[in-house]
Amino acid sequence: MRKFTIVLALLLLAGLQGVLAQTRVISGVVTSSDDKAPIPGVTIVVKSTTIGTTTNVDGKFVLSVPSNYNTLVFSYVGMKTKEVKIGESNTLDMVLEPDVMNMDEIVVTAIGIPRETKALSYSVQNVGSDDIQKSAQTDVINSLQGRVSDVQIISSAGTAGAGTYIAIRGVQSITGDNQPL
Q: What is the pTM of this model?
């Protein structure tokens, strides 16, 4: 009789644990608001937990959410992070908007210390994306030719798979190699 009581108590506790640990399976697709294309690699996390997943190549996800949590957080580099409350439906399609940020201009000096351009005692040269797009070159490195002083760019044009040689501050150096890092 005593064994029967212990077994019954264990079954009751196991059943109670199963009732308390119920989960919902939420699935859906994450797309971009710009072109309505699916976004692979979006991180989806249950808020205030470490439970999460990422979207696959088609932007689809499946996530098991404990019943006592009701908010999902969607985040992706270059997109605004969104927090969404889970409703009654087990399907949740999400549209993420791009997060455009304007960054202040800084210069990283030779010893790796970031400084503002106006705080430096020497001149700074800047080549923007507009300058590169205006050049007739198909290669980004070759489009820098003639736009920055003390930089020589020598390309092996016409040879398939050939590289481009970049010399900064002249062709001589102490170690004999002046290729950029």
A: 0.50
Query: 62, 54 in Cβ contact below 8 A?
Result: no
Per-residue pLDDT band at 136 (split at 50, 70, 90): confident
What whole-number distance in Å separates Cα of residue 142 and Cα of residue 163? Answer: 11
Residues sharing a CB contact under 8 Å with residue 163, sequence separation 6 or more, in sequence order: 156
Under 8 Å between Cβ of 27 and 90 = yes
Q: What DSSP state is assigned to residue 35?
A: T
Give the percent of the chain with pLDDT over 90.
Answer: 30
The CA distance from 40 to 76, in Å, is 9
Q: Provide the 8-state DSSP code for 138.
A: S
